[in-house]
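Hi all, long-time lurker, first post. I run a small reading group and we've been trying to get comfortable going from sequence to structure in the token notation. Rather than ask abstract questions, I figured I'd post a concrete chain and ask someone more experienced to write out its structure so we can walk through it together at our next meeting. Sequence below, copied exactly:
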Amino acid sequence: MQPVISIQQLSKTYASGHPALKTINLDIHKGEIFALLGPNGAGKTTLISIICGIVNPGGGKVLVDGHDIISDYRAARSKIGLVPQELFNEGFESVLATVKFTRGLFGKAPDSAYLEQLLRDLSLWDKRDARIFELSGGMKRRVMIAKALSHQPQILFLDEPTAGVDVELRRDMWNMVRGLRERGVTIILTTHYIEEAEEMADRIGVISRGEIILVEDKQALMHKLGKKQLTLQLQQPLASIPEQLNHYTLELVDDGHALVYTFDTQREHTGIAELLKDLAQRGIDFKDLQSSQSSLEEIFVSLVHGR
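-- Answer (accepted) --
Happy to help. Here is the structure in token form:
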């Protein structure tokens, strides 16, 4: 199946000499939620800006639903909705007029019913006649989303969409994202709230220093790179870990009241049975145990720092 976005050998070096992107190759599938993660300055916004036609590429090729972003800019851009990081709205226009105008810019015929439903979904219908400068920051963010969706794009870019917004807007936005995906819209998001990517994304891409260092199905990534931990609540606290147990990956926590054993889920033998036997032989008793797996945030940090 042809990808809805195909990026081949994409690079970008700014006039200052800073290499923002270095040979990016990436395919994004139709109807998926793709989370692009990376530290500040990694190249996330530059990559999105090139795909959306805001920044010129230095080299390479980008196709959006088969349309080249350079030679067939209008067709490519008409497929895309963009919610940028920065808040920028026409201050003296009303909410409804702003969204209508944006839809018209893409050559779409008026559709009052669609725009009304869009504003209702974003809790903006009651504010439709309010001028933009009268709105709160959270409401302005909602208007940005409405503008991005006004022309019914097949692809939606969300660049740090929930940075600094209230919990209610975050919840409304993710409900809308789920609904859009059900209708076949492809969503690409960057976020600092990695728990959102963990909950929402189908695939994860990690970018660092202008390079894509990993693209993986979310569940496969967490299974492949995630570590599991077994926490043992001890009957009696330990002052230190006995030398005979040094070959285990153990950590003493909670003022010596708990032992944490870290193991690799990919190994054939976890070593748990041997550990429990060794503890019993040394008279170290536990009253409770629990296991946990690495979060996506921990995997992301280890990947980036590993670079």
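A couple of things your group might point at:
The chain has a mean pLDDT of 86.
The first strand starts at residue 5 and ends at 13.
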